[in-house]
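pipeline stage [seq->struct] | target=Protein DedA | organism=Polaromonas vacuolata | residues=222
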Amino acid sequence: MEIVTYLLDFILHVDKHLETFIVSYGAWVYALLFLIIFVETGLVVMPFLPGDSLLFVVGAMCGVGLMSYPLAVGLLFVAAVMGNQCNYAIGHYFGPKVFQWEDSKFFNKKAFDQAHSFYERYGGITIVAARFMPFARTFAPFVAGVSRMTRSKFTFYDVTGGALWVGGIVSAGYFFGNVPFVKAHLDKIIWAMIFVPGVLILFGAWKARRNARTAEALSSKE
């Protein structure tokens, strides 16, 4: 329970925790950030780690000179791409077996089904779009591996999405993270970055499921 409480506090106040870490450990912050982004995108059992909010705060730290902007963007881009590649490889290895898995402490089958539904509908562009969606970001490369997307095609979408995600959000934090209004309402912005994309993907999954049921009902009447 203490771990959950600390993790929630870290996500909601990532700016304070990150600044404290920089003051205490200096350049080791780059290794920590690389690890967080790699694990969040690379291991299907770790979708709850901060992603968008972390990148935004990193940009804000770069804006005030606490971190190097080009180094942060470069390292986190590599972490994001490598994480997706690792996740894809895991999905490709396990293949269709995952459809038989049930909910557990380490695997959220509902989130997987939602990502799979989104992937089936939109194909490779899902890899790019999911970068900006918590939970879907973790499951999309895994689903691509399960669905046997070719490595070359996946890599194209992986690199494109990683560049847009890391470069876009870190840059947003760099230019806007230290605006007084943003700093005063950062906790609310973090909540929005977590829940708004989540609501969108839930709505998309629900709509896709409803359309599938409608199509199934129509075909059964014929």
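stage status: PASS
auto-comment: Residues 2-221 form one domain. The chain has eleven helices and no strands.
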